[in-house]
Amino acid sequence: MAMILRNFIVFEGIDGAGTSTQIEMLMNSPHARKFFPTAEPTNGETGRFLRRMLGGEFRLDPRTAAYLFAADRCEHLWGTGGDDFNGGIERICAGGKIVVSDRYLFSSIAYQSVTCGGELAKMLQAPFPLPELLFFFKIAPEVSLSRIGGRGKREIYEEVEFLRKTEERYERAISEFEGTGMKIVTIDAAKTKEEVAAEIIGAISDAGMLER
Ligand code: TYD
Questions:
Q1: N or C: which end of the chain has fewer CB within 10 A?
Q2: Coil, strand or helix at 173
């Protein structure tokens, strides 16, 4: 069974679900100094390469992209982490900060299951530890896309039919992680950002993570 990484929290959801906004809100809360915010794709070399692909600059075979998302995750956990950290997630968690990542291996299972099939998508995640706490932002693609609408240029995955399939994969994948010891909190992401922020800090507190 996969290892659980203490002090590690992950936010997941389809594009426009509001995970980035919630990390920002956490970093503007009175508890900010306890947290180390990060994201995947990372801002390291592999992550930047992936973002160029996501922006439509060039195409990759979907399997190549799946391997690269996993390689970026390896660097995020155990390598330099990204441009603004000096050592990966595992080192920061061990130092006592709570790392909060906007996306992690559940994104690969959901998105890459749609682009290149569930078997490869799941297999590539086998080496990675699970977070202590997972927030899944549940939302209808129509609602999430209407939020993204105002943001300008869309990335290649920001399309309603694709996101509907991705949302289904997320729900299925996350239910398969029940019983692993990872705490899973499903958020109704259609609520206001203040309501969602309150639920998140409440769940982090209930998990006993703020008192450490
Ligand atoms: P996103 O997290 O929405 O970042 P931004 O808000 O900066 O655009 O975009 C990342 C995209 O990458 C998103 O569509 C999901 C996709 N993705 C995968 O397909 N697999 C993965 O493993 C990860 C981490 C992201």
A1: N
A2: helix
Cα 16 versus chain centre, distance: 12
Strands 130-138 and 4-12: parallel
How does strand 4-12 pair with strand 183-188?
Answer: unpaired
Atom number in ligand 1 closest to CA 108? 22
Mean of pLDDT values over 60-87: 94
Confidence of residue 87 (pLDDT cuts 50, 70, 90): confident
**Mean of all residue pLDDT scores within the chain:** 96
> Which of 10, 20, 73, 111 best tests ligand 1's pocket when mutated (most atoms within 8 Å of CB)?
111
DSSP letter (8 states) at residue 125: T
Residue pair 3/177 in contact (Cβ under 8 Å)? The answer is no
**Closest to 168 measured CA to CA, from 63, 176, 146, 191:** 176
Pocket of ligand 1 (CB under 6 A): 15, 20, 40-41, 54, 69, 103, 107-108, 111-112, 155, 157
Distance (Å) from CA 95 to ligand 1 centroid: 27
pTM for the model:
0.97
User: What backbone torsions phi and psi does residue 23 show, to the nearest 5 degrees?
Assistant: -70, -40
Report d(CA 203, CA 185) in Å as an integer: 8
All domains of the chain in start order, with CATH: 4-37+97-206 (3.40.50.300)
- pLDDT above 90 covers what percent of the chain? 92
